[in-house]
Write a structure and sequence with these properties.
The complex is a heterodimer of chains A (630) and B (530). Chain A is built from 33 helices and no strands. Chain A has 630 residues and is mainly α. Chain B is 10% helix and 40% strand.
């Protein structure tokens, strides 16, 4: 086995084992693969990964499909982070081992820690949440095939060429994106043997493979056939391109440098072509045990340092928000949302934050403690030009918030969108099953549940609900289904139901009520809020009290109109009045300069409705709240 | 053991003994089953093939026995041929292909019997009443082309047209949308409206909708693929193969908030046009595209003398408002217009069946290849029967209508269900229809095959059989627009996909077909009907 050969020297076990351990640790702790799994990225990248659930035949045959299929299967292991960490960590380690093996045989011995570069780049890629498994596996395949070719005994140019073409065809058909690496290493290997005629033939033969296999075999256009040989960046971000290309280029570049070095010196150096300083770090082959240990520590340090320096904490926070939303971890979601950088705090995050606030019973009192993108973020009613993976997250979010509120048909709509866009989405399947159980279509629900039962991670849930779907009495008695059925609209409309439609149909629908109130506040209209305080008695708000933001709306309205709303036996807290008076006093100092007022008041009043109101109406013409003399 | 049980056992053993049991790997233990207690009813199975009329060339109708048991024994036999005996510890009964076909071929026009015995965990055997399946004498066309698509709303990623060999379970792609992926989104294009000329596949159209590659039509003629740079809506080949008549529709989708099927569709405007292959030009006229009416769903009679279509008055002037106020009042009439193919001269429009008479919207007329029957569907309103649970299939005897001048129709009671039936097509011998039905829940469209006898009556249909009898339990896609064809599509998928990606296309001459002709490249969900 290649890695075994490479690690013939016991001292190499240190660095190898250290890299494996640090890779696993980074994958588990820093990357946390379950965030990728639940972030839906894997489905878009690999829509087919649950045996028997979807048909691979929906994807036409293209070069590299076998590796993509394998990656799809392996990505399924991201679900629990520890198995996902195994996939990522071991892949990184195998990349390192294969790189070492192929470079050693191809004429670049003694490359020392440089062999770990592809593995480190893979970990860096993952720490930025750019799905890289298919690319990595394709590269791994290319390295292994290049190694096979490099170890081929010299039996004449013809035989070697024939073997090379066979290997090249395999690499192109199965992996494709690593094909250029394979070709480069093959040529380098021949050059290092001074088989220059062979190198030319190999290069020409290799270049013909995409044409023969891609155009004739897969029916691609020539441009496409050769395009498949290039790695597709794991994401659109420039960093993803840089890391992806570095990952694929580093091995052939090292090999090429080695070949050139040998060609120039006409003699292979005893300890490879590497500069002295690199050899100093790695230690000589005959050094003591301390140097390998130190070398391993340096390797670990470099790996950890590179990953931590490159890690995309903003994306991680975003994925954590997504994960918490899917698992209804509301306090954790609110905490994670604080880590989302402002430029990533999208309407999607805002929607999930508001949802978490509602479920935590804090929407009416803490909504303005979190950034708000306006009323469109409540139900994600805006259509933004976002990439498909973001569309999936948004569709799931739309489906869930609507389901919870009682907009079942809309929930079903968006769950279908998510399923189509993602290719496969267990969360969407769950939502569709529940929506159809609520709608009294158990046979439709059963199809989604049967499909979901093919997924080992969701089998238990699916089977439990399958039993529910086949027992109409149990279904009707189920508390969750019963609760949801009470929230649904009794009469059809085609004009687009809203929280207001729901609340008018059922005045006990608390979520519809709070979202309707939130909508009014976010639209800068407090009259519907102050006029709805009587409904507070319907729900379980603390007796005698008014939720803070409604209280702030009451005070603002009283200030602007001079009329105190009917509080229905509830009272505005004295500290709320004092705070509002403080707000008024402070804002008077800044006259009518809106930005000055907003900036100066943010720290003390940024989490209040009246501050939001001021912001909402300015510019162009901020209302003269402070000057209103009533 | 009861008398009926003994009799059943005797018959089974006699059949097995005289004809020899088919060599199944897991043959039933007749002796063990001989003491079975009669249940006095048929076994519940899914899919429900019992009492259906089936084609003699259909793939094995494997099924799942929905009776709890630890052991299942099934005998399938007829007057002639070898009995197929299957024993299984699982309720899935998979019928072997070769013996099945031998049995069907030997018993054309006769009945197939299916006996099911089950053994409970306590060892007691139960015998269910023997069920029957009628084998028609007439074969169904060998292939079925359809589109597989998830129940979608606005977005799509993977849409594909596939074909099935009806004699076995082989499914091959005709054209998958993922053959022309948009690299910036990873989403596949939309393929739709696959139509064939006279049930043959040597002349075929496939519609393409794609944000990147635009809206166009692929014309596959004897394996040669060309792209026509316009959008055909619902289209139909003239039997001569020299013309494709198509509709241009301004279809829009809207949603219901409290109905089982939330999706609905309105055609804000539509008209008919035709494409002449020889001159590579499109054309239309006021007879095909009346200014105050909407025309859609064209279908040629097999003699090519009449074009059948649906037409409704346009009740609105605002062409953008969705949904229009009167969306649920629009109903389509059934009309036809004569045509002289040699002179390219159109006759006068003729109202055959008014919606005011039926009280329903008449859609999707399809004339049987022998010209005798007109099959169509009707629903309460609108133009999109697949989203209407009240859509049912109806038959009109054209021969009688020509004779009497009365265009009478009748509902095909045996073929319909409580859910939507639509998108029907004829077998080339006019004895079989394939259609879409949402029975079994109301969401997932499946293809059903129904025998139509000489009187035009459709018999109990059978769902398109699958190798895995539990296939439909978890299949998340719908089968849409099933079209029966005599042979497989010979054009390679790679050639079709290459034509889509190619910039070469026929720029159609002639005037713009209608006032609602879509701008080039327009792409919305509208082509993604189920």
């Amino acid at each position: 086995m290649i890695p075994m050969r490479l690690m013939a020297q016991p001292r190499e076990w240190f660095s190898s084992a250290a890299f494996l351990c640090v890779g696993l640790l980074i994958a588990y702790v820093v990357i946390d693969p379950k965030l990728i799994y639940h972030g839906h990225g894997v489905y878009l990248q690999f829509p087919i990964h649950v045996p028997g659930l979807t048909d691979y035949a929906e994807v036409p045959g293209v070069p590299g499909q076998a590796v993509e299929y394998l990656a799809a299967r392996l990505a399924h292991l991201y679900h629990p982070s520890w198995t996902g960490a195994l996939v990522i960590g071991v892949t990184a380690w195998l990349l390192a081992m294969a790189t070492g093996a192929v470079l050693t045989v191809a004429g670049a011995p003694g490359i020392g820690p440089l062999r770990y570069l592809p593995g480190i780049l893979l970990l860096v890629q993952y720490s930025r949440y750019h799905p890289a498994l298919a690319n990595s596996l394709a590269l791994l395949l290319s390295l292994l095939l290049a190694h096979v070719y490099a170890r081929l005994p010299a039996r004449g140019v013809g035989v070697r060429l024939l073997v090379f073409l066979g290997l090249a065809l395999t690499d192109y058909a199965a992996g494709a994106v690593g094909f250029a690496v394979f070709l480069a290493l093959g040529v380098t290997s021949d050059c290092s043997r001074r088989e220059y005629r062979g190198a030319w033939l190999v290069a020409l033969g290799g270049l013909a493979i995409p044409w023969m296999a891609g155009v004739w075999g897969f029916g691609l256009d020539p441009l496409q056939a050769y395009g498949h040989c290039l790695p597709a960046p794991a994401a659109a971000a420039p960093s993803a391109r840089i890391i992806t290309y570095s990952l694929f280029l580093c091995t052939p570049l090292i090999a090429l440098a080695s070949a050139l070095s040998r060609h120039r010196r006409r003699v292979a150096p005893a300890n490879g072509f590497l500069p002295r300083w690199v050899r100093a770090v790695t230690g000589s082959r005959h050094g003591s045990i301390i140097r390998p240990v130190l070398g391993s520590l340096v390797l670990v340090g470099v790996t950890v340092g590179a990953v931590l320096a490159a890690a995309e904490t903003g994306t991680r926070a975003l994925l954590q928000v997504n994960y918490c939303a899917r698992h209804r971890m509301w306090p954790a979601l609110l905490q994670a949302s604080r880590q989302v950088p402002p430029h990533r705090y999208s309407t999607y995050v805002n929607c999930e934050v508001n949802r978490a606030l509602y479920h935590a019973g804090r929407l009416a009192s803490e909504m303005f403690s979190y950034p708000q993108h306006g009323s469109q973020a409540l139900l994600l009613t805006n259509d933004e030009d976002v990439p498909p993976v973001e569309l999936v997250r948004r569709s799931i979010s739309r489906a869930e918030v609507r389901y919870e509120m009682g907009l079942i048909n809309q929930s079903e709509h968006y769950a279908h969108e998510a399923l189509e866009l993602a290719g496969y989405s267990p969360v969407a399947l769950q939502r569709l099953a529940l929506a159809n159980l609520v709608k009294g279509r158990p046979r439709v629900a059963a199809v989604f549940l049967q499909a979901l039962s093919g997924d080992s991670h969701y089998r238990g849930w699916a089977r439990e609900h399958l039993r529910l779907s086949t027992d109409s009495r149990r279904l009707d008695d189920d508390p969750e289904i019963g609760r949801q059925r009470q929230l649904t609209l009794p009469e059809d409309t085609v004009d687009g139901a809203t929280p207001e439609t729901l609340f008018r149909a059922n005045e006990r629908n608390q979520m519809a009520f709070e979202y309707l109130m939130a909508f009014s506040l976010l639209e800068g209209r407090h009259a519907p809020v102050t006029g709805s305080l009587g409904y507070l008695d319907t729900f379980d708000y603390p007796a005698g009290q008014i939720p803070r933001h409604y209280e702030e709306a009451v005070l603002l309205e009283a200030r602007l109109t001079g009329t105190m709303a009917d509080l229905h036996g509830r009272a505005v807290r004295p500290e709320a009045i004092r705070r509002f008076e403080g707000f008024l006093a402070r804002s008077r100092k800044f006259g009518t300069n809106p930005s000055a007022v907003l900036n100066s008041l943010y720290d003390d009043f940024g989490n209040t409705y009246y501050y939001y109101y001021l912001w909402f109406h300015s510019p162009p013409e901020p209302p003269d709240v402070a000057g209103a003399d009533t | 053991m009861s008398r009926s049980g003994i009799l059943a056992r005797w018959i089974l053993v006699a059949v097995g003994g005289t004809t020899g049991l088919t060599g199944c790997a897991d043959a039933p233990d007749l002796a063990a089953a001989s003491g079975a207690e009669p249940m006095g009813r048929q076994a519940r199975v899914r899919p429900d093939y019992f009492d259906a009329v089936v084609p003699p060339n259909i793939a094995p109708l494997s099924f799942v026995v929905e009776e709890p048991a630890s052991r299942y024994e099934v005998w399938i036999y007829a007057d002639r041929g070898d009995t197929i005996a299957i024993g299984s510890d699982e309720p899935e009964i998979t019928i072997p292909v070769k013996p099945w076909h031998q049995l069907l071929q030997a018993n054309r026009g006769a009945r197939l019997r299916v006996s099911i015995h089950t053994q409970g965990p306590e060892g007691r055997w139960l015998a269910f009443d023997t069920s029957t399946i009628t084998i028609a004498d007439e074969e169904i066309d060998g292939y079925l082309a359809y589109r597989l698509i998830k129940p979608i709303y606005n977005w799509w990623r993977s849409v594909g047209i596939y074909q099935r060999d009806l004699q076995d379970y082989t499914e091959t792609p005709v054209l998958r949308g993922l053959s022309f992926v948009n690299p910036s989104t990873g989403m596949g294009g939309c393929v739709n409206c696959h139509t064939f000329s006279n049930n043959r596949t040597d002349r075929m159209t496939v519609g393409i909708r794609d944000p990147l590659y635009g809206s166009s039509v692929l014309l596959a003629l004897d394996g040669e693929v060309t792209k026509v740079g316009t959008k055909f809506g619902y289209n139909t080949w003239h039997p001569s193969g020299r013309m494709v008549t198509y509709s241009v529709n301004k279809v829009r989708q809207f949603f219901h908030e409290a109905t089982a099927e939330s999706r609905d569709v309105v055609d804000l405007d539509s008209g008919l046009a035709y494409y002449l292959l020889e001159s590579q030009s499109t054309s239309t006229n006021a007879k095909l595209d009346a200014s105050d009416r909407m025309e859609t769903y064209p279908a040629w009679s097999p003699d090519g003398r009449h074009l059948y279509f649906c037409s409704a008055p346009r009740r609105w002037s605002d062409m953008e408002r969705i949904p229009t106020e009167e969306y649920d009042a629009i109903q389509y009439d059934l009309m036809r217009i004569s045509y002289d193919a040699d002179a390219d001269v159109w006759g006068e429009r003729e109202l055959l069946l008014a919606a005011s008479r039926t009280g329903k919207s008449i859609l999707l007329p399809r004339v049987s290849p022998d010209g005798r029957f007109l099959l169509f569907c009707m629903c309460d309103y609108g133009c999109f029967p697949i989203h209407r649970a009240d859509s049912d299939l109806y038959m009109m005897d054209l021969q009688r209508a020509e004779r009497t001048g009365q265009f009478e129709y009748r509902r095909l009671a045996a073929a319909n269900s409580d859910e939507s039936e639509s998108w029907h097509s004829w077998s080339s011998n006019s004895r079989w229809i394939a259609f879409s039905s949402k029975r079994g829940g109301g969401l997932f469209t499946r293809t059903y095959l129904s025998y139509v006898d000489e009187g035009g009556e459709a018999h109990k249909p059978l769902v398109l059989p699958q190798r895995d009898p539990a296939f439909y339990d978890s299949f998340l896609k719908t089968y849409s627009v099933p079209e029966l064809t005599i042979g497989p599509v010979a054009t390679r998928e790679t050639d079709l996909a290459r034509a889509v990606r190619s910039e070469r296309q026929i720029q159609v001459g002639g005037p713009p077909p209608t006032r609602v002709h879509p701008p080039a490249g327009e792409s919305s969900w509208k082509g993604l009907r189920e």
